[in-house]
Amino acid sequence: MLVAVDHVQLAAPPGSEDALRAYYVDVLGMTEIPKPPVLAARGGCWFEAGYVQLHIGVENDFRAAKKAHPGLRVTRIEEYAARLESLGAPVTWDDNLPGHLRFYSQDPVGNRLEFLEPVRRSGRGE
């Protein structure tokens, strides 16, 4: 039986690990976690924050997905969005999910990320 999502795998082009580390650690506030040695030899990097793990693997013919994305639940979403913007990450708000505040951003290689927070009231900033 399914009990939880263990991790989400994203892809990136070869040689992008340093840019990804800067984004996922410095901008998003995640922690890099070591990959097992046999997997580390393939490149890429893994990150976590709380119960969330994102694994980023290298693809030689990488193309960022236009719609596919992980949905990451956050707290204090407006402060978090301001943090991302102040560090140069794009933030695009989307009001189309009732009961939630949410925005999209992109990592340095174009992976789409959704950030959302459930709310009891409607609208952002009320």
Task: Provide the domain count.
Answer: 1
Net shape: globular
Give the ordered list of helices and strands: EHEHEEEHEEE
Query: What is the number of beta strands?
Result: 8
- What integer value in Å does the Rg equal? 15 Å
Oligomer: single chain
- How much β-strand is present in the residues? 25-35%
Structure report:
- The protein has helices at residues 17-27, 37-40, 77-86, and strands at residues 8-12, 31-33, 45-49, 52-58, 71-73, 92-93, 100-106, 112-118.
- It has 126 residues and is α/β, with parallel strands linked by helices.
- The chain has a single domain (8-60, 69-118), classed as 2,3-Dihydroxybiphenyl 1,2-Dioxygenase, domain 1.
- 19% of the residues are buried.
- The mean pLDDT is 93.
Top keywords for this entry?
126 residues, alpha/beta, 2,3-Dihydroxybiphenyl 1,2-Dioxygenase, domain 1, four-stranded mixed sheet, 3 helices, 8 strands
How do you describe this structure in short?
The chain has helices at 17-27, 37-40, 77-86; strands spanning 8-12, 31-33, 45-49, 52-58, 71-73, 92-93, 100-106, 112-118.
Secondary-structure map with pairings?
Blueprint: E1 8-12, H1 17-27, E2 31-33, H2 37-40, E3 45-49, E4 52-58, E5 71-73, H3 77-86, E6 92-93, E7 100-106, E8 112-118
Parallel strand pairs: 1-4, 5-8
Antiparallel strand pairs: 2-3, 3-4, 6-7, 7-8
